[in-house]
């Protein structure tokens, strides 16, 4: 009987010790959760974004973490499915006790997360989702990148300086693109620019071929693509048969490698894309150098605008964590501060009214024979 009591006491003490160690381990960990498309229609975008985020967190952890706490970065593949994204975020909050949440790709998955009960109860802020549609969100969403409207304004200004006044539109008809299409049409009117024609992406191959030929004959100075990567690629492949030297412009959430695979490298000549980060291959700033060096050290993958954006998103989140405030308050405090945030040669000018951290927009042009020129 005595030995059984001693055994029970020993086991109880061991369990208490393990529990205490577990609590201590949790106390020394900052959990960052994210649900994002890694294998669906925007998987190539998601994988690059996650690679950049992971790389920065790895670089922090090998140097002791944030205030002695390691960052535990948990990523769930939502495959671009809104319901799956909401479920993944709920699990990250309930089971993994996420302290911070990073967003996924597109307004549909963002809306699903915001509408979930677990997210509503968490009080957290969804940080740095990748959204290309014109939509307004409240302070529960904090964007790292500038707005799609800012990107489109930059595209218009860029070609306005070249004296181009005639514009065609390649439009992938769906609910997500409708607002941006209306925005572009309204902007054409404001700038007294002529809309030469419209190609509807996603209609029958015959209709698209016919519309592309009509648009090419109208000789627009530029065609603006309001479409995802696949839609833009399908349009380019057809349009370039008729107009090999007409400028086609798209936005930053087009995956350029996938675009080249769909349309063919030749079709990418005379195409330009707005970018929300400086050239990731350049070494003009400390953060560009760090991104390049850390990617080589931890990932051994190609650098891209999305790996660089992810790297700087993670660096911005760490700056918020270093304020010592809890999750939502830390991010909101960072967004509300009036001073410029220096990430190492790339600066942020956060706005607590637009809920955006960066206003940076640039343009990248495909060189003849391949490769981007910023």
TrEMBL record:
Alphabetical list of InterPro entries matching this protein: Leu-bd (IPR028081), Peripla_BP_I (IPR028082)
Superkingdom as given in the UniProt entry: Bacteria
Keyword Signal carried by entry: yes
Transmembrane segments: none
Pfam families assigned to the protein according to its UniProt record, in alphabetical order: Peripla_BP_6
Alphabetical keyword list: Signal
Leucine-binding protein domain: residues covered: 29-364
Signal peptide location: 1-25
PANTHER family for this protein: BLR6548 PROTEIN
Entry similarity comment: Belongs to the leucine-binding protein family.
Name by which UniProt lists this protein: ABC transporter substrate-binding protein
Species: Undibacterium umbellatum
Lineage: Bacteria, Pseudomonadati, Pseudomonadota, Betaproteobacteria, Burkholderiales
């Amino acid at each position: 009987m005595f030995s059984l009591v001693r055994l029970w006491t020993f086991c109880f003490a061991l369990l208490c010790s393990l529990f205490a160690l577990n609590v201590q381990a949790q106390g020394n960990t900052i959990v960052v959760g994210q649900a994002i498309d890694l294998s669906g229609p925007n998987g190539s975008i998601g994988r690059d974004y996650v690679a950049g985020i992971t790389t920065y967190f790895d670089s922090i952890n090998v140097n002791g973490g944030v205030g002695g706490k390691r960052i535990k970065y948990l990523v769930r593949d939502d495959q671009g499915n809104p319901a799956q994204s909401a479920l993944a975020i709920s699990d990250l909050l309930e089971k993994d006790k996420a302290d911070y949440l990073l967003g996924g790709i597109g307004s549909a998955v963002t809306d699903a997360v915001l509408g979930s009960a677990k997210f509503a109860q968490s009080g957290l802020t969804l940080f740095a989702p990748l959204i290309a549609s014109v939509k307004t969100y409240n302070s529960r969403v904090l964007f790292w990148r500038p707005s799609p409207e800012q990107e489109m304004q930059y595209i218009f200004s860029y070609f306005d300086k070249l004296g181009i006044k005639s514009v065609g539109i390649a439009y992938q008809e769906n609910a997500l693109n409708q607002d941006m299409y209306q925005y572009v049409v309204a902007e054409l009117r404001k700038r007294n620019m002529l809309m030469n024609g419209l190609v509807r992406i996603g209609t029958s191959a015959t209709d698209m071929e016919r519309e592309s030929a009509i648009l090419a004959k109208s000789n627009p100075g530029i065609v603006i693509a309001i479409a995802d990567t696949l839609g833009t690629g399908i349009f380019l492949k057809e349009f370039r048969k008729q107009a090999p030297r007409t400028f086609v412009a798209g936005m930053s959430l087009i995956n350029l490698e996938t675009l080249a695979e769909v349309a063919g490298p030749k079709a990418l000549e005379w195409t330009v894309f707005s970018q929300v980060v400086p050239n990731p291959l350049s070494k003009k700033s400390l953060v560009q150098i760090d991104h390049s060096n850390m990617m080589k050290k931890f990932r051994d993958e190609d650098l891209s605008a999305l790996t660089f954006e992810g790297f700087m998103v993670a660096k911005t989140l760490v700056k918020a964590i270093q304020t010592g405030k809890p999750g939502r308050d830390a991010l909101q405090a960072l967004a509300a501060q009036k001073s410029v945030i220096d990430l190492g040669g790339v600066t942020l000018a956060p706005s607590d009214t637009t809920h955006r951290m960066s206003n940076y927009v640039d343009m990248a042009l495909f060189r003849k024979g391949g490769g981007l020129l910023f």
